[in-house]
């Protein structure tokens, strides 16, 4: 029997030339849109993964006597905000086996690193690699100095006396809650000799080996009536020890912070630097607040307690609000 139905032509073969052009154009547009979407997503992901530059403070007790690693220094530099710029880099230097990290801007050669670290070569020093060798953050510069030895000495960090008021004791009663104990500051120096005569002694690192334990005295404010606690209960005062703490005490109060905030500041910087203006952690952190790098504190940063303390208080205010906020962070993570 004859069939009266029209023969079916394959769908693609049935398309006209114009329809083919439309199909191809449509597919091209889809591909372009997908490509743009992928590129945009990749861009935003790369932006979100970009490191946050700029930490300017770092705990001296976090690395302390431990081996300084590039990862630890880079993490420290990337913490926080408003600090070091993208040009800040670091190179490790070993002098007679003692390691230190030098921070600076746009290092080029071994010589540029030594200049930034204020490291003066003596006649006969053996430097590896050579002074004109290009450097990066994986470079370790080694200096062998003849007639020189490394010496570490411990010195005491005095403890503070804190008075805590409490209504759990009758008014006028005083009770020692915690006995005080001095901390330990470890200072490593490179000593150059000629025979038995010492020619020079340069401090290479100085950090808190053990933080002091403050003496805490409870001062009773109770009235003897459980229904009428003293309004001053729970507050504390800390007697400053040394000129730097006396200066900081006045600056803390001038900012409108109370005595309790000064107590937190004393504990924080006792742990960080022992309140030494020349505290130099092997990581590159420096001074009373342990700024990383120390030059961020501005003119006078190497030895001026006023410069270091004002910078440190500004950093704390912008980052944590108060010294007690910074101290809480330090207790929780080991750095602030």
From TrEMBL:
<protein>
    <submittedName>
        <fullName>Putative secreted protein</fullName>
    </submittedName>
</protein>
<dbReference type="Pfam" id="PF07501">
    <property type="entry name" value="G5"/>
</dbReference>
<keyword id="KW-0732">Signal</keyword>
<dbReference type="InterPro" id="IPR011098">
    <property type="entry name" value="G5_dom"/>
</dbReference>
<keyword id="KW-0472">Membrane</keyword>
<feature type="transmembrane region" description="Helical">
    <location>
        <begin position="20"/>
        <end position="39"/>
    </location>
</feature>
<dbReference type="InterPro" id="IPR023346">
    <property type="entry name" value="Lysozyme-like_dom_sf"/>
</dbReference>
<dbReference type="InterPro" id="IPR007137">
    <property type="entry name" value="DUF348"/>
</dbReference>
<keyword id="KW-0812">Transmembrane</keyword>
<dbReference type="Pfam" id="PF03990">
    <property type="entry name" value="DUF348"/>
</dbReference>
<keyword id="KW-1133">Transmembrane helix</keyword>
<feature type="domain" description="G5">
    <location>
        <begin position="143"/>
        <end position="223"/>
    </location>
</feature>
């Amino acid at each position: 029997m004859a069939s009266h139905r029209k023969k079916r032509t394959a769908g693609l073969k049935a398309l006209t030339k114009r329809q083919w052009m439309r199909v191809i154009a449509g597919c091209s547009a889809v591909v372009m849109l997908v490509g743009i979407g992928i590129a945009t997503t990749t861009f935003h992901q790369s932006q979100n993964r970009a490191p946050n530059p700029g930490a300017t403070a770092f705990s001296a007790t976090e690395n302390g006597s431990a081996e300084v690693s590039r990862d630890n220094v880079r993490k420290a530099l990337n913490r926080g905000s408003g600090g070091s710029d993208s040009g800040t880099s670091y190179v490790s230097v070993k002098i007679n086996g003692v390691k230190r990290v030098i921070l600076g801007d746009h290092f080029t050669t071994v010589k540029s690193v030594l200049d930034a670290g204020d490291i003066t070569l003596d006649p006969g020093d053996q430097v590896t690699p050579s002074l004109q060798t290009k450097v990066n953050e994986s470079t370790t510069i080694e200096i062998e100095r003849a007639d020189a030895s490394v010496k570490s000495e411990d010195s005491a960090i005095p403890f503070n006396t804190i008075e805590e008021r409490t209504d759990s004791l009758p008014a006028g009663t005083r009770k020692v809650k915690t006995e005080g104990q001095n901390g330990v500051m470890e200072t490593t120096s490179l000593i150059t000799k000629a025979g038995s005569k010492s020619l020079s002694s340069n401090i290479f690192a100085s950090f808190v080996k053990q933080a002091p334990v403050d003496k805490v005295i409870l001062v009773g404010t109770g009235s003897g009536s459980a229904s009428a606690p003293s309004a001053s209960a729970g507050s504390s005062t800390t007697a400053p020890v040394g000129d730097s703490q006396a200066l900081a005490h006045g600056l803390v109060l001038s900012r409108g912070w109370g005595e309790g905030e000064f107590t937190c500041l004393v504990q924080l910087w006792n742990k960080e630097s022992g309140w030494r203006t020349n505290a130099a952690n092997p990581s590159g952190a420096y001074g009373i607040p342990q700024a990383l790098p120390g030059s961020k504190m501005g003119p006078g940063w190497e030895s001026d307690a006023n410069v270091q303390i004002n910078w440190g208080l500004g950093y704390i205010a912008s980052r944590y609000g108060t010294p007690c906020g910074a101290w809480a962070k330090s207790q929780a993570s080991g750095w602030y």
